[in-house]
Design brief:
Length: 113
């Protein structure tokens, strides 16, 4: 069974794509929690960060570097932004496919949630 993000990558479900390369896809979140809320995820499904393996290290590094690039292109570099990766139910994970939230455009309080 494909995850939601696999279906988006396969263009089976529409999404507002803001960045794509061979390894990752970035889309606007349909329930934004900040003025800018973008999700970036690997096209190759990794269920969650806790299940990533040493073989995934290049993919994970690429994901984070591209998240920073997407944030900059979204105009968030100067004011700042937050990257969030949820893991498991208590961590707020709702889709079992590793993804990173790029949040910005307003002051983000700490601690979150």
């Amino acid at each position: 069974m494909k995850t939601l993000f696999e279906k988006i990558a396969a263009r089976e479900i529409p999404a507002q794509i803001v960045f794509e390369d061979d390894l990752v896809l970035a889309i606007r979140d349909i329930q934004p929690q900040a003025p800018t809320h973008i999700l970036i995820f690997p096209k190759q499904p990794v269920p969650r960060i806790a299940e990533a393996t040493p073989d995934d290290h290049k993919l994970l590094g690429h994901l984070l570097l591209k998240a920073a690039e997407v944030a900059e292109k979204a105009g968030l570099k100067k004011s700042g932004y937050r990257l969030v990766i949820n893991n498991g139910a208590d961590g707020g994970e709702s889709v079992p496919h590793l993804h990173c939230h790029i949040l910005g455009g307003r002051h983000l309080a700490w601690p979150p949630g």
